[in-house]
Every structure is written in structure tokens, then in C-alpha cells.
Amino acid sequence: MADFQQNGNITHFHNLRSRSNEELVYEIESYAQSRKISLILPSLYSELEGPALANIVAELSKVSYLNRVIIGLDRADEAQYRHARSFFAGLPQKTTVIWNDSPRMKALYERLDHLGLAPQEPGKGKNVWGCIGYLIGCADSAVMAIHDCDIVTYQREMLDRLVYPVANPSFPYQLSKGYYARIGGGKLNGRVTRLLVSPILIALKRVVGDRDYLDYLRAFRYILSGEFAMRTQMLPDLRIPSDWGLEIGVLSEAWRNLGRGMICQVEIADDYDHKHQETSPEDATAGLNRMSTDICKALYRKLAADGTVFTNNTFRTLKATYYRRALDLLEAYYNDAKMNGLKVDRHAEEQQIELFAENIVRAGQVFLENPEERPFIPTWNRVHAADPNFIADFHRAVAEDEAEFAPA
Questions:
Q1: Type and span of the H or E element at 162
Q2: pTM higher than 0.90, yes or no?
Q3: Its Gene Ontology molecular function terms (predicted)?
């Protein structure tokens, strides 16, 4: 059974198994009569061919309270876009597939580039940002949820529990973040959260001192989960990171714009598993190697914006402090896994800690050497101020793609 602990930083919603999910759904359906709820699914085309997405679509087909489903489709050619339209056609909600690689969409991003407002690189951040812009243009939803398309243990209850805190009009919450245990295949997973984020937050407190922001981040039980729900009034001013720091970036934006009483996390599953990234130790631009660097930069940027001064000596001290804390936590995770009959490869995980320690310094060097780096995609309010017709033209491009390229 789950605990009922509250740490005083943000609200925790536990699953105490004292209420049926049917009763929860009935309540959400009543809220959705006047507060429409939409879902964003950022997807690579390759995920249509994976083991998870067909089941996700089947589960979403049972969700009666969803107003819209918006799929951002990346890395797809024309035939693949047509196939994606067929793949998602069975969803009963208003469903839109945004073909991010279409000629029309590329022309729109070139238009933004001339204004100096285009996303700097492709990826999940750009995908989510585009879907948010489309949803803003729809102007018909009070709540937006987002989750990944590679969740092999997906059940509709995950979405039900995720949206409830922000859909309930009597609650004050503007942002809800999902958490769960990352286990699968008899192993304890969640390497980046366990081996990088948790220990570096401890190390940062020791090196740069107590910061409310660090206590806030440490309150999240699975800080890198990709499951969010938020009230749409947040969206026009939401800054989306363009790199792999998306999850921490969104939490940082919530910290900047909201009070703690408006932020919560909710237990959405007993266990959870999805696609695992390769470590890619030989390639700093791929896999967990790239992800760890981007996450470190996201933390440094936020702390610097709040007045923390970083130097090369800071990062060297941080590396040493992190390394000791990470090994301590690895011991705790190893023993926890052993007690629960799960496996942890200590040798492989110590190698990952060594890689992450190097990336703490590498990210610091990049941070110090590129002070003019633009890590965030401009907000949709800024885009609208620079080009008032852009959102309408974005909607038109999506509609024209749908009209021209019928499903396969």
C-alpha cells in the first residue's frame, strides 16, 4: 500500500486504493462538460512500429472525457504521414496528426527563422511546442495533458489520475506531474533519475548552498517523468526548452510562474516501463550521454537566473561531491532492489556514474563558454506579438496537409 506522506513543498496525490477508478472517471466526465480536456502525444514515426503505441491508442479509445487528441509526428515522410493518419483514425475524439516534416510546416518554421524565433533544433521540445501552439489556436480546452508514446505498461487509469487534480475546479492546482516506480524485466530502471538527478541535487545543495528551488525539485518523486497535465491558461507564456531538459524545464517554468500551492504530483501507476535510451558513452550527442549534459545545463541555467555564480572551480567541486553522493545512493538502490527481487548491474551503473560525473564538468564548460546560448523556444505570446497571423496560418497548414494527404 502507498504511504500518505506530504513533504510541505508540493502536494502529493497518492493512490490509497480506497476509491474505484470508475468513480474517479465519472467525476472527471462531469468536469469535462464545462472544462474541456485535450491530450498531446509527441511521437516519432518509429513509435508506430513499436510495441507500445497500439495499446495506448486502444486504451485512449475508452476515454470518453477527452475533447481532442493532438499527435505531433516527427521523422515521417509522406507515406508515413498517411499511415499515421490511418493508425490514429480509430480514436473517437477529435484527432489531429501534425506532420512536422511537411513542406508547409517547414515553410512556417522558415518564416519564424527570419524573425529569429524558430526552435533551434528538432526533438521532443519542438514537437511539444508546436502541439501547444495548435491547441492554443483551437481555443476550446481548459486542461491539457501530455505523455510519451512508448509506455509499454500503459493503462487509461494513468491519464485519469494525471488529469484529475487540474480538472477538478475546486482544486487550486495549475500543474500536475505523474510519478511511479520504474521497474521492468526484473530490473530497477530509471537510471538518469537515480544516478544523475537525485545525487546532483544533493550535491548542488552542498556546493551552492540551500536554495528553495533545489528543495522544490527534490520534492518530485520521479522528476524526469514525461507525464504532465496543466490548465491551459499557462500555455501562452510557457517557455519550452529546445534540448533534452524538457521535464526539468517545465518544472522550472512552473516554479517561476506559480506558487507551490498550485503544483502537485500524482501517483499514476504501480509500475511503469517504456523504451530505454542507450548510454552512448562514445557519442556526446546521443543517448543518455547527451541527455545528462542537457539536464545539467538546465539546472545551471535556472540557478544562474536566480543569482548563483558559477566558475570552473564550482563545477570541479560539484563533480567530486556528486560522485560521492551518487555512489552512496547506488548502494541504497542496490539493496532496495535486492530486497524486492530485482536486478541492478552495479558495474554498469558505476560506469554510468563516471560518465555523468564527466558530463557535469562538460556541461559547465559549455554553460560558461556560451553565455548567449538560447536554450528556450520563444513563448507563443512572443510569437503572436511578432507575427499575429502565425497561429492561424499554422492551423491552416495542418488542415491543408490533412486535405491533401488522405490516410493510406
A1: helix 156-167
A2: yes
A3: transferase activity
